[in-house]
Amino acid sequence: xxxxxxxxxxxxxxxxxxxDLLMNLAITDLYRAKWTNEIHxxxxxxxLSNRNDLGRKFLERTRDRMNMSVRDCLVENYQYLIPxxxxxxxxxxxxxxxxxxxxxxxxxTYNLKDFPKDILLKHGIEAQHPDEFLINLIDLSIDAxxxxxxxxxxxxxxxxxxxxxxxxxxxxxxxxxxxEKLREFSNLRI
Length: 190
Fold this sequence. Notes:
Elements: E1 5-8, H1 16-26, E2 32-34, H2 37-50, H3 56-69, H4 93-101, E3 104-108, H5 117-121, E4 126-128, H6 130-140, H7 142-155, H8 163-171, H9 176-185
């Protein structure tokens, strides 16, 4: 297993299509995926505020499956770092604290402006948009990424998705460069 750790921000765990893709990638051992109970609380609260058809217990089962599926994923005892950290949005300090405590190299987030490069650089951490992160994973191992993408796509059964439908769903997650790169390999591996 690699020592390269990556912390998922709550915003990449909701909506479900990106979370499910990231979970399929996390089990490849290309990197060590990390999150906290506070990050879980944030994404679950976000889902519940927008989806009254889903209940907390259902989402907590998803949380529990995530924790069971990825080795050593839950970051704990990082709170002592929070008071010393300064970010544009003080509510994001727990994310940076967890990344520091877990020795994560990357925070995967849509909210790049909330994690300024100069602050993260002091801690040896980089914030990456999911599209950039996924492109970087392709550079690490196209085979592992394609296997994870295929596993994710074939797991979608309600309804099942063709490759093009699947790519469209990823584009809706703001992953255009990743989809473009996957299209190069779709006839061979996906």
